[in-house]
Amino acid sequence: MHDEAPFADAAATRAQPPAEHQTPAERHSAAERHTPVLLDRCLDLLQPGIDAAREAGRTPWVIDATLGMGGHTHEILARNLDTHVIGIDRDTNALAMATERLAEYGDRLVTCHTTYENIDTALETAGIDAVDGILFDLGVSSYQLDERERGFAYSYDAPLDMRMDTTSTLTAADVVNTYTHQQLTRVLKAYGEERHARRIIDAILRTRETQPFTTTGQLAQFIIDVYPRGTKGGHPAKRTFQALRVEVNDELAVLEAALPAALDAVATGGRIVVMSYQSLEDRLVKYAFAEATTSSAPAGLPVEPEEHKAQYRLVTRGNEKPTPQEVEENSRAAAARLRAVERTREPLSRHHYSDRFSQRTRRNS
After folding, report:
1. Domain 10-143+252-364 is of which CATH architecture?
2. 139 is an annotated ligand-binding site residue
3. DSSP code of 111?
4. pTM, two decimal places
5. Which of 141, 142, 167, 272 has the most CB atoms around it within 10 Å of its CB?
């Protein structure tokens, strides 16, 4: 998954028919060409959890919380012939493509059309209570970026859509054309960290009265025109497009709910691996992992109560970044940040972290 629209690939993307109009062979070929980000490192991090399940006499189960085109799942299944994967994705087109690509693995793959905070639903679908690994590859997928009619990229003209789940209703055009000044300010500042949010929003509100925004190219050029000249930091539309996408898909709220659900779903010895592509996501992951790997006991207690002991340990030091060679081989890996934890203790209750995080949220609200 990724967070920025491609530039060099725009011409090639225009030459490809939309996924729903491609033949099975064309869809399979597109999936085969896709290079998963940090593939070997992710699998190396997940492998100890799979091995722990084997040693305990269990069938290993892994959740690919962002199945996409199935690249990571394909390698998990190919390298571990006894392992089953639950593939979650909110994008029905991606699910269809991945299911087709991974058909050779039969019932070792279980797919779920949902957002990844619904891990309990995925477990129920598979008929299991816990898994031995969970992989999150956050952001927008290569498949979604390369489907120009989805409207995720600012590098070419397409409908202003940005829905990861095309069965949902809210689009980026709805946000731009109907949100109030206050609502747009929240979106651009909170989700895009856009320093020039007020300037952009004031111009949008003036313009949309007579000319609604309907395409990505129209909005991208509009932002270029109103952006302060000489501003550094990449394409002027980058942060606005990120903010709109996060709003349309409720990405941060979904992730915030998914992380404690994931912490609750992993068996002892299992691991959670998360790749993020922007600082807002990485902060949430860092916070959740810090909570899981730190004692919650009040200061000054002579003995640490069992219920306050950390149930996880950090596997990565900070957030790992791709090597220059990995970026050279796959330019979309450049923004990736990787974190991982391992469960070291038996869970205290089925929803320990979900309850703990929700209580903290209520106290802070």
Report:
1. 3-Layer(aba) Sandwich (3.40)
2. no
3. E
4. 0.88
5. 272
